[in-house]
Amino acid sequence: MRKAYLVTVALFALAFSLASASDPAPLQDFCVALKDYSDKSAVFVNGKFCKDPKLVTANDFYFGGLNIPGNTYNKVGSNVTNVNVDTFPGLNTLGISLARIDFAPYGQNPPHTHPRGTEILVVLEGTLFVGFVTSNTDNRLFTKTLNKGDVFVFPVGLIHFQVNVGKTNAIAISGLSSQNAGAITVANAVFGSNPPINPDVLTKAFQLDKEVVEYLQKEF
User: Fold this and answer.
1) pTM of the model
2) How far apart are CA 124 and CA 71, in angstroms?
3) Is 109 within any annotated ligand binding site?
4) Which of 39, 61, 62, 192 could form a disulfide with 90 if both were Cys (CB 3.0 to 4.6 A apart)?
5) Which residues form the signal peptide (predicted)?
C-alpha cells in the first residue's frame, strides 16, 4: 500500500513539473493582448489584458516584416528581431514566440540566457558556431558548427551563444517556448547593471584587477 502511495505521489510530482515547465496553459481559445489598458471590456490573464473576443480580427494573429534584415552595424555585429507578445499580441497565452537573428560576417549573439523559455534555432543562411554551458558545478560546454538547414536546441535558462564564422551574412530563426522568454545578456547584466554592481564584488568574483572591472563597467 505504501509503495503504491509513493508511486502515485511520484507520478503527480512528475506531472506537475512538466506542467509548470512552460507558460501556463490558456483557459480559453485565445487572449489577444491589449495595448490600450483603458478598454473597460478587458480581462487580465497571463500577464496581459485580453481583447474582447468579439472585437478580434485575423490581423490580431498576423505579423509581417520578418523578411526584412535587421541592422547589424553595432559592436557585436548582430541584430535580433523579436516576435513575442509585446510585438505580436495574438501570441498572448499561447506559450510560443520566435525571433529572426541577423549576423554580419564574424558577428555574434553574445552569451545570454532565456529565463522563461527553451530555444530551438534553424540556420537559414550562412554558417554558425553555437553552444551552451550547463549549470554548476559541471559547467560543461556543448558546441556545434551549423550550416544552412541545421537545427540546434538551447535548454531553458542555460547560457548560450551563436557566432557567424563565415565571410558572408548569416540568418537564423529561433523558436521559443514562451510568449515572452526574456533575455539576459551576461556581460550587459554583470557590467552594465543599473545601478552598477559594487566593483569589489566583481573583482573577487572574476578574479580581476579593480581597474579592469571599472573599465568594463564604463564600456557597458
Assistant:
1) 0.82
2) 17
3) yes
4) 61
5) 1-21
